[in-house]
Amino acid sequence: MVKVIIDDIEVEVEPGTTILNAARKIGGDVVPPAMCYYSKLQGSGGKCRTCLVEVAAGSTADPRPMPKLVASCSTPVMDGMIVKNKTSERVYDNRAAVTEFLLINHPLDCPICDQAGECHLQDLGFEHGKEGTRYEEKRRTFDPIDIGDKIKLHMNRCILCYRCVYVANQLTDKRVHGIMHRGDHAEISTYIEQAIDNDFSGNVIDVCPVGALTDKTFRFKSRVWFLKPMEASCECTKCAGKAVVWMFGDEIYRVTGRKDKYGEIEDIDGKTAWICNECRFDKKDKSQWNIEGPRVINRHSVIAQNQYLVDERLESKKLTGK
Amino acid sequence: MGRKLLLEHIDVPGIESFEVYRKNGGYRSVEKALKTMSPQNVVEEVQASGLRGRGGAGFPTGMKWSFLAKPEGVPRYLLCNADESEPGTFKDRYLMEKIPHLLVEGMIVSSYALGCNQSYIYIRGEYMWVLEIVEKAIAEAYANGFLGKNILGSGYDLDLAIAPGGGAYICGEETALIESLEGKRGNPRIKPPFPAVKGLWGCPTVVNNVESIAAVVPIVNDGGAEYAKIGIGKSTGTKLISACGNLVKPGVYEIELGMTVEEFIYSDEWCGGIANGKKIKACVPGGSSVPILPANLITKTAEGVDRLMSYEGLAEGGFATGSMLGSGGFIVFDEDQCIVRNTWNFARFYAHESCGQCSPCREGTGWMEKVLRRLENGQGHMHDIDLLAEINKKIEGNTICPLGDAAAWPVAAAIRHFREEFEWHVTHPDEAVKRNFGIASNHMPLV
Ligand SMILES: Cc1cc2nc3c(=O)[nH]c(=O)nc-3n(C[C@H](O)[C@H](O)[C@H](O)COP(=O)(O)O)c2cc1C
Ligand code: SF4
Ligand code: SF4
Ligand code: FES
């Protein structure tokens, strides 16, 4: 085990653990944000640069600080490493710069975007953004395209995190989906607008950190905070059949994988619980699911809106009138 | 006359053929190394020579070679980086086109030193005619027993193949080159692991520039110590410089490191001075990614000392008043040239060539290009100048590979030394648009 100090908190982790995962072991706000890293997808990370942190001391053996900020998602910890995340002004400044860069070509269409309420860029913008923009140039625009009959791509919103590319690579066969072109004209696309036709292709929607890949069976039907997320399971032959069904009254509006607090699909019985397309797109009838109960949602999340906790003290006040 | 090690026989008619090359002492280094030296001896000679990588960063070649991991039963690879795409740099092309056997010879000796049995030359896609020349040289080397099985009866086997690139600047970055060779999109990898540990197909790999590999030939022939006698300080040996811009005699020159910049630009043996009797305004001494120098800092340092053509000499003064030798792409601007236009031109290149993986580089290079385009087209504001400076500060050091820095440095240096020219573009928008540089206008439409 190696010891590392992140924002003055010491943690012990296995050798080879990345700074980000060591921070996740501590939890709370010492955890850097991650837009491209996704622990369930091999090779992901290193690209968006939102997880940059300052290494104030490299290790006990070589305590020199690292001159550049490093990507916490792809830098392994060393014994005695001292890392600054929320305690570093440099980190904050550079994260604000990354946020500004990401927002150059990402429309602030949160009021109509299906990712609203579940969008990490929205969180980053809230924490680091400024009300104005310094970008006066024309933004790049694309028409939304259908990738098959269930998935819609809004390339305007894409931040090129590559997560969906890794899903396509690692979960689907006969991959037709990837990145074309370079620089700020790079775009996610299927080969000449082909459909991604595979039992697990719907997972690209779950990994997309912004609203670029949307579920055509759900988009524009509701806002997530109006829905009740319920844990549900079914007898499925393709996947483990463990999902979250998002309900309004008795109706299922959408089905997603079960995601943890970092927005990543959970492991169930030692396996990442990717769900199949049939569970996601076709099982919208309550009778097809065994509803297990409400999903625990972070109280600070917008999704927790309208899902009031009953405060017993208040209730008793109301009753007694005192 | 400066001493020539690489281009000594360049003017011999037919030197591109095996026969003529051999008659002029070609492939001696292979005979010497394979028959009389161990691979370790060759590495030691290269270390003793002080040779620094000629691809741009100037990292000592011998040291790089010594880092190569040598696990049992795993192949190792030597890759020659002939992607040469930095604007202003065209020295490797010249070498490969004129004297291709020198590269093939260098590849054999270097592969022997590193214990590689399969090596590749990665040539940029635009150099198709050069590729054919090198391919012919490789075929001749095979036919004459210098490649293939049991070379010269030494028991050493080597196969050498060419991999044509797709025409992307980023594929010159060593890990992107490896990805591209593996048949993937040429995106740089996150380091560590470094190629010396995990490179091509996960095996230990060395990536070296064409000129670095060619320099191994005279080093083995004459000994590392002899090579180290040429040059100055830690800049040993000779260097190919591709000189271009407003010079009387642009071209590819082999110089002994340590000559003065003054002599290189003005003497008749080299560039012959500034064309059309004009004055020099600026110089980018090491390819488009290095900081631009204004007239007063080109031949003299800020301390008033003669500036030398060497790694240290050109870097003298750090980023504030110095630059870098880089890849040796020496671009000279006369008094009529527009710095803003040139900065935009470079920025256009980097914005186009960024692989687009990391957000600061992808978005930042595009943003800088657009702001510079507006400034050059007379539609800029004063605050754009500081904005540019700030964007490049936010790209620098925050990216996966050095392309982000390469895009940021030229803009930062141009603003540092020529700020008034940027301001002039804002205050004189009409004149900025109407100027004529005697070249066809390639103003891109403002979209
Ligand atoms: C964006 C980028 C482009 C590069 N292009 C080239 C190139 O065309 N040729 C080259 O030799 N090195 C190029 N390099 C440097 C290589 O990554 C590598 O350092 C070099 O090939 C090592 O060879 P050397 O040690 O012999 O100099 C480039 C680096 C970057 C970041
Ligand atoms: S579509 Fe979404 S998941 Fe795919 S690269 Fe873009 S932002 Fe990432
Ligand atoms: S710095 Fe630019 S070229 Fe290099 S990996 Fe990042 S986006 Fe690609
Ligand atoms: S999460 Fe680390 S760089 Fe994107």
From TrEMBL, chain A:
Q: Which residue range or ranges hold the 4Fe-4S His(Cys)3-ligated-type domain?
A: 90-129
Note the CDD domains from the entry: fer2
Provide the alphabetized UniProt keywords.
Answer: 2Fe-2S, 4Fe-4S, Iron, Iron-sulfur, Membrane, Metal-binding, NAD, Translocase
PROSITE patterns found in the cross-reference section: 2FE2S_FER_2, 4FE4S_HC3
Spans through the membrane: none
Q: Which GO terms describe its molecular function?
A: 2 iron, 2 sulfur cluster binding; 4 iron, 4 sulfur cluster binding; metal ion binding; oxidoreductase activity
**Species lineage:** Bacteria, Pseudomonadati, Bacteroidota, Flavobacteriia, Flavobacteriales
Query: What is the protein name for this chain?
Result: NADH dehydrogenase subunit G
Q: Does the keyword Metal-binding apply?
A: yes
Q: Where in the cell is it found?
A: Membrane
- Named cofactor requirement(s): [2Fe-2S] cluster; [4Fe-4S] cluster
* UniProt family annotation: Belongs to the complex I 75 kDa subunit family.
Which GO CC terms are listed, alphabetically? Answer: membrane
Q: Which SUPFAM superfamilies match?
A: 2Fe-2S ferredoxin-like, 4Fe-4S ferredoxins
Automatic annotation (TrEMBL), chain B:
Q: Mind telling me which Gene3D superfamilies this protein's record contains?
A: 3.10.20.600, 6.10.250.1450, NADH-ubiquinone oxidoreductase 51kDa subunit, NADH-ubiquinone oxidoreductase 51kDa subunit, iron-sulphur binding domain
For the NADH-ubiquinone oxidoreductase 51kDa subunit iron-sulphur binding domain, which residue ranges apply?
Answer: 340-385
The top EC class is translocase
**GO molecular function terms listed in the Swiss-Prot or TrEMBL record:** 4 iron, 4 sulfur cluster binding; FMN binding; metal ion binding; NAD binding; NADH dehydrogenase (ubiquinone) activity; quinone binding
Q: Where is the signal peptide?
A: none
Q: Please list the cofactors this protein needs.
A: [4Fe-4S] cluster; FMN
Q: Its Enzyme Commission number? A: 7.1.1.-
Keyword set, alphabetical order? 4Fe-4S, Flavoprotein, FMN, Iron, Iron-sulfur, Metal-binding, NAD, Quinone, Translocase
Q: Which reaction is catalysed here?
A: a quinone + NADH + 5 H(+)(in) = a quinol + NAD(+) + 4 H(+)(out)
Q: Which domain of life is it from?
A: Bacteria
Q: What does this protein do?
A: NDH-1 shuttles electrons from NADH, via FMN and iron-sulfur (Fe-S) centers, to quinones in the respiratory chain.
* PANTHER family registered for this protein in UniProt: NADH-QUINONE OXIDOREDUCTASE SUBUNIT F
Family membership, please give it: Belongs to the complex I 51 kDa subunit family.
Q: What is this protein called?
A: NADH-quinone oxidoreductase subunit F
